[in-house]
Amino acid sequence: MSLKYSEKYQVPFYESDAFKNMKISSLLAVALQISGVQSTKLDRSDVWVAEHYHLFWAVIEYELEITRLPKFSETITIETEATSYNKFFCYRNFWFKDAAGNVLVEIKSTWVLMDKESRKVERVLDEIVAPYQSEKTSRILRSHKFAKKDTFENAELMSYPVRFSDLDMNGHVNNAKYYDWASDMIDFDFRKNHQPKKVYIKYNHEVLYGSQIDAKMLLTELSSQHNINDDSAQVEIVWEKI
User: Fold this and answer.
1) In this structure, are 154 and 56 located in the same domain?
2) Which Pfam families is this protein grouped with (predicted)?
3) Among 15, 27, 72, 130, which has the highest number of CB atoms less than 10 A from its own CB?
4) Residues 213 and 103 both lie in one domain
5) Which of 87, 119, 141 is the C-terminal boundary of a domain?
């Protein structure tokens, strides 16, 4: 049975949006922080992985299921578990719960280990993940199917520069930024009356400092599909009316 780790968390002002909901990019950032705390407590911090194996962890896929978003100043519990791994992929879940223990947001994530110099994906060694007590399996979880990039040929386009503040300590764009780039294309009036119900994000290629982000969007009644820099990242948001 995998080890679980949890922390209480009070949603601060700067992580809340215009409707007093916790931003999804903040959910992702805090989830990464909580997983990092567990890793440090198990002597498998990012620094340890880099020093011993010259590797770093990278998230390549997220799936969020949202019942409701945490509210400004609400005290929630964030729980995480590294559930399983195979020779190339590690799977970790997060649960954001209210004071009564109800799950507000569930996040499923897929991770890989990458070499710091070559930026290539490396095999997951048992000794790196052993302290999490995750299940070792040969099974690879099926990825979400996104719209193909040629679907976006005549789609709405917005461009953004990659700034220094967008980078994380591995030197590439922080993964939470991609959701912001995608969702910023949605009209404010639509956002007032709709909440994300499901979010799928896949990271295919690193985006580095100095790049230009070209984000394309296809919007239907309750779904927005986003393609960033010709499949460098793909995002799909399923919306519900509130």
Assistant:
1) no
2) Acyl-ACP_TE, Acyl-ACP_TE_C
3) 27
4) no
5) 141
